Amino acid sequence: MIIKVCGMRDAQNIREVESIRPDMMGFMCWSGSKRYVSGRPGYLPDVCRVGVFVNPMADEVVLKVRELGLNRIQLHGTETPELCSAIHKATGLPIMKAIHVASASDFDVCSAFERADGVDMFLFDTKCSGWGGSGRSFDWSLLDRYQGCKPFLLAGGIGPGMEDSVSCIGHPQFAGIDLNSRFETEPGLKEIDKLSVFINNIRNYEQDK
Fold first, then answer.
1. Of 105, 114, 172, which is closest to residue 97 (Cα–Cα)?
2. Catalytic-role residue among 29, 84, 110, 125
3. What separation in angstroms does the CA of 62 have from each of 45, 58, 101, 136?
4. N or C: which end of the chain has fewer CB within 10 A?
5. Does the CA dihedral 9-98-163-72 come out positive or negative?
6. Do 17 and 44 form a contact (C-beta atoms < 8 A)?
7. How far apart are CA 166 and CA 184, in angstroms?
8. Integer angstrom CA distances of residue 32 from 37, 73, 95, 142
9. In which region does residue 176 sit, left (phi positive, over 0), alpha (psi from -120 to 50) or beta (all else)?
């Protein structure tokens, strides 16, 4: 299972999270976020670095790719399939497209993005008034509505004590989870003890399967 820890910013906290061995770390490249990374942190991890953007211009993404040494792009706004393809072409990086979910019909847009060049993964997050960070989960039974061929990460309100629920997800395209606000002491600063326990428990569940 892929484990992505998002909203990283502080150099020392990045080092501490890296020691827990997540598969990906996310860096907020949208200036409207409380976790916005305005410049290159003093330390960058040796894991897959994901830049999270909201309705960006392609040249803006290219600059952040260079500054942060990004390995993957996450588009978290209302980007079109055409913009996804354009950003993929400009950067050469794979695209993870966020789909905001409140009802079964929200998965209907996935088919258009499945045909977009460079989109190789989805992130299903809870629909809210802003761009994520709600700290709430949507009804995971809705995942049955997704019948696509691309793998997905699950986001939105995943926190301590939810290991059993995560491990019981049986969708064939379920690839992993995105962890953020439920493991923070403040925006952009992760609570290492809680995060370590959760990740270790998830890894143990995977070994026992």
1. 114
2. 125
3. 20, 6, 28, 32
4. C
5. negative
6. no
7. 19
8. 10, 17, 21, 29
9. left
Q: What is the pLDDT of residue 80?
A: 97
Task: Give me the domains of the chain, ranges plus CATH numbers.
Answer: 2-208 (3.20.20.70)
Mean pLDDT in order along the chain per 10 residues (209 residues) = 97 98 97 94 98 97 98 97 97 97 96 97 88 78 96 96 95 97 96 97 85
Give the active site residue among 6, 29, 84, 110.
Answer: 6
Q: Tell the residue number behind the tokens 């906290």, with chain if given.
A: 13
Return d(Cα 139, Cα 53) in angstroms, integer: 25
Query: pTM of this prediction?
Result: 0.95
pLDDT for res 132: 60
Quote helix, strand, coil % in the chain, to nearest 5: 35, 25, 40
pLDDT at 205: 83
Q: Is 84 a catalytic residue?
A: no
164 annotated active-site: no
Closest CA to 141 of 154, 132, 128: 154
